[in-house]
UniProtKB/TrEMBL annotation:
Record keywords: Kinase, Membrane, Phosphoprotein, Transferase, Transmembrane, Transmembrane helix
CDD domains: HisKA
Molecular function GO terms recorded: phosphorelay sensor kinase activity
Phylogenetic classification of the source organism: Bacteria, Thermotogati, Deinococcota, Deinococci, Deinococcales
Pfam family, one: CHASE3
The protein's name in its UniProt record: histidine kinase
Domain of life: Bacteria
Domain Histidine kinase as annotated: residue spans: 406-620
Organism of provenance: Deinococcus aquiradiocola
Length: 639
């Protein structure tokens, strides 16, 4: 039997006992010494990869923000091209100047969609509102300025009012585009700043940490190589067995101690990190609050103020321990110390920047008090300005209504005189007048009658605006048939087929609703087609707390670009030679519907009839108290 090296005799000296070998203990020791260094290197590399991925994410965000900014700049260029083309066409009448305008019209839809998405990407209500206002202004500019210029050509350049209107609308469009573009620039600059800050702060630090981790791995390897070399040297010496055993025991002991020390150090590090993270989280939350937060102990001393509170008082650091609230802000202390509850209304308090308005809240705790101060100065100033504007507006409306009533009465008297004398002249002296004189006299009478109707329509419009409505249930079926009876002559003249479905009752003013239906049905009878029999349908359907009514005809219809214009006062789409009217009927309809808390809109295609929709609050005819109360309901949205 061959003896293993380093054999030692047994206690009875009969046969050698092989020396114990524990290669697994050495391997475990080596691995235990290497793992922390490897973990450190892996963590550094992982952090470096995370920073690179974050930089890539910021780069993608920057690309999207730049694309959104380009969409706004492209729409600004479109507006400039349209305005330039129309101005050249108005000055010269040459169609070649319309090429930029026509090109922009062909791409305006996608450009507006991209502009809308760019505004939404900012996530700011103010920017979204500006984008919506810009789209509305562009549509209004095309309808009220571009349309007349294209129709009238060079003749439009002499219309100064039209030119001022076009310039004002374009200026308003540019103002809204500036809002969106400034937000886009701010977003791009913010992302660029984030990228620069991230690259400047973290990349050099992570590179240095990577080098340190590599150096740590190299140092651990050198230490392990030294220990193994020393162990081998002890084994090859004559007293190898005792030395080898001592080395093995020292390795195991160090490994055990290192393991326990590492566990304790890891636990302590985790506790420190948890405390640090909790403190940073609380400080971050408090310092990102826009409201002031004051923490008072049970004795009324200030123990902590967040960043907003420090900035409000122009303080750079926390106040010394034991500082009283009276010493920092006497006016706030007076409100806090006097009275069990704080006032609900905003309070005016002096600050280093001047008086400010604050909404105060207090939360009593077992070991102190939390005071929360929310600065509502802009809101309070806006409220005061709004109240003053409402007072001025009410006074102005009262003066305008009084003027409308007085002016309508004073203007109708001379009109009656003019019409009467012109009629007498035509009746008594008609045989002495030639054909031209008779034509002039008839024009005087017709003009006086037209002006009289216009004054009466204006008076009706003013009365609708001045109504103090007390609502009651209105039987819409009865009102509709009453209006048809009034329009019986016009219905017979057009040979119209009228269909009225059963209509639910509504809550409103019967006289105004009668005027609303009269104007809509008279409008349908007026604008009927000569080559078709007029079909007029009235029907309704419930929509929650409202009822949507539809007055539908197969008349001449209205082009989509003019469907909002017809509700504007004095706006006419046709000459008086063919269709009578003053451009007030549909404006009165809108005013009546809005006074009832509803809305009115139009669906139509030119030559394919019209569908006027309007909503009124629903009512029950059972005598319930709510049916006679003033209207206080939300307006329904567009279906």
């Amino acid at each position: 039997m061959t003896e293993r090296p380093f054999a030692r005799p047994s206690p009875d000296n009969t046969q050698p006992v092989p020396a114990p070998t524990r290669p697994r203990s050495v391997i475990v020791h080596v691995m235990a010494r290497m793992v922390p260094a490897w973990v450190a290197l892996a963590l550094v590399l992982l952090a470096l990869l995370s920073v690179l991925l974050l930089l890539r994410s910021h780069a993608l965000n920057l690309q999207r923000a730049s694309s959104n900014l380009n969409a706004t700049e492209r729409l600004r260029a479109d507006v400039l091209d349209m305005e330039t083309g129309l101005r050249g066409y108005a000055l010269t009448g040459s169609p070649e100047f319309l090429q930029p305008y026509d090109h922009v019209i062909g791409t305006l839809g996608p450009h507006l969609q991209a502009f809308r998405e760019a505004a939404q990407a900012t996530g700011m209500t103010r920017v979204n509102r500006a984008a919506t206002e810009a789209e509305v202004l562009i549509v209004q500019w095309r309808q009220t300025y571009a349309g007349p210029v294209l129709t009238r050509g060079p003749g439009a350049r002499r219309d100064l009012e039209l030119a001022r209107l076009g310039k004002r609308l374009v200026d308003d469009i540019r103002v809204q585009l500036d809002v969106v573009e400034e937000a886009g620039h701010a977003q791009v600059n913010g992302i660029q700043g984030q990228i620069a800050g991230l690259a400047g702060r973290w990349l050099p630090l992570l590179t240095l940490l990577s080098l340190l981790a590599l150096a740590l791995n190299l140092w651990v390897l050198i230490r392990l190589a030294t220990e193994i070399r020393d162990g081998l040297r002890h084994v090859t010496q004559p007293d190898a067995l005792p030395a080898w055993l001592r080395w093995q025991e020292s390795v195991e002991a160090r490994a055990s101690v290192d393991t326990r020390v590492s566990a304790v150090q890891g636990e302590l590090a985790r506790e420190r990190e948890e405390r640090r993270r909790t403190g940073l989280t609380l400080d971050g939350v408090l310092n990102t609050m826009t409201s002031q937060l004051w923490v008072l102990d049970e004795y009324g001393s200030v123990t902590r103020i967040n960043r907003a509170g420090l900035q409000a008082l122009h303080l750079h650091d926390q106040p010394p321990q034991g500082t009283r609230l009276q010493d920092l802000w006497p006016e706030l202390a007076q409100l806090y110390l006097h009275g069990d509850t704080l006032p609900d209304e905003p309070q005016e308090l002096p600050t280093p920047d001047g008086p400010r308005w604050f909404l105060l809240q207090r939360d009593e705790q077992e070991r102190g008090t939390l005071l929360l101060l929310t600065d509502v100065t802009p809101l309070q100033l806006s409220r005061h300005a709004l109240e003053a504007s409402n007072v001025n507006l009410t006074r102005s409306n009262t003066d305008l209504e009084h003027y409308a009533f007085v002016a309508s009465h004073d203007l109708q008297e001379p009109l009656r005189t003019i019409a009467s004398f012109a009629g007498l002249l035509l009746a008594t002296q008609g045989d002495r007048l030639d054909e031209r004189g008779q034509f002039y006299a008839r024009n005087v009478i017709e003009g006086a009658e037209r002006l009289k109707r216009l004054i009466q329509d204006l008076l009706s419009f003013a009365k609708v605006r001045a109504e103090q409505l007390e609502f009651a249930p209105v039987d819409m079926t009865h009102v509709t048939h009453a209006v048809l009876a009034t329009l019986e002559e016009e219905v017979g003249r057009c040979a119209a087929h009228v269909t009225v479905a059963p209509l639910p009752p509504v809550l409103g003013r019967e006289s105004l609703i009668t005027q609303l239906l009269f104007n809509l049905m008279q409008n349908a009878l007026k604008f009927c087609r000569d080559d078709l029999t007029l079909h007029l349908n009235v029907h309704a359907e419930p929509q929650g707390d409202f009822v949507r009514f539809t007055v539908e005809d197969n008349g001449i219809g209205i082009a989509p670009e003019y469907q909002e214009q017809v509700f504007v006062i004095f706006q006419r789409l046709h000459g008086r030679a063919r269709y009578q009217g003053n451009g007030l009927g549909l404006a009165i309809c809108r005013r009546i519907v809005e006074l009832h808390g509803g809305r009115i809109w139009l669906e139509s295609q030119e030559g394919m009839g019209c569908r006027f929709h309007f909503t009124l609050p629903a009512a029950r005819l059972d005598g319930s108290p709510e049916d006679s109360a003033p209207l206080d309901r939300p307006r329904p949205g567009t279906p």
